[in-house]
Amino acid sequence: MADSRVDRDTIVYSAVVSAAEKAGQWIVALCLLEEMEAVRLARDVIIFSASVSACGKAGQWQAALRILDDMTSVTVAKNIVTFNAAITACAVAGQWLAALDLFDSMALARIQRDSITCNACISACEKGGRWEVALSLFDMAKEVRQDTVTFSSVISACAKGWQWLPALKLLHEMTTVRVKSNSIAYNAAISACEKAEQWRWSL
User: Fold this and answer.
1) Could you tell me which of 30, 54, 127, 173 has the fewest CB atoms within 10 Å of its CB?
2) Tens digit of pLDDT for each residue in 123-175?
3) Which residues contact 126 (CB under 8 A, 6 or more apart)?
4) pLDDT, tens digit, for every residue of 173-183?
5) pLDDT tens track for 57-66
6) Repeat PPR: residue ranges (predicted)?
7) CB proximity list for 112: less than 8 A, separation 6 or greater
């Protein structure tokens, strides 16, 4: 009977943490994690990942990283969902170095990186003004699947760095590899040309 009650309690906590994640209520998610620890309820990778995701939506990258540390201390293995959520948290806050550390940690943990991983890292570099790192990540993303978000993010990174030629090449490449372009990609490429005073290319 006791085990049954514990199972029910865990299910209830999981449902509430999931709801908090969907609502972006990161403080609620963290409080629930602490409550579970206090009442000695086992926390699994799903609950931890949902909490990291809640932090990610709010750009609370430091809180997300603390949760990863907690997972290590209680020997709960991280998965691709956990890492992607944490990298997204870093991306929202423009913390490109922290995002790259997590990117490297995935390789060490032998977790296969996907397009979400690469896109989030490129976005972090774009916000951090590191266009050259974004381009390197873009090349690595060819091993997974480059999509509209991938191209738009790296073109935006080039625009911020006044790198008009790479921006135009990437815009052309989108057509070549049949990736659907969007207004973000076009506007970023135009912005790169304007910043570099390459007016004829922006027309």
Assistant:
1) 173
2) 999 999 999 999 999 988 877 888 899 999 999 999 988 888 999 999 989 88
3) 134, 153, 154, 156, 157, 160
4) 988 888 887 88
5) 888 999 999 9
6) 44-78, 79-113, 147-181
7) 80, 106
Residue 111 token pair: 């977790």
Q: Which residue has the tokens 């990298």?
A: 87
Residue with tokens 């299910």: 11
Answer for the pair 91, 127: CB distance below 8 angstroms, yes or no: yes
Amino acid at residue number 18: S
Instruction: Read off the pLDDT of residues 1-40 as tens digits, 9 standing for 90 and up.
Output: 344 445 668 788 888 988 988 888 999 999 999 999 998 8
CA dist 75 → 44, 99, 108 (Å): 10, 22, 16
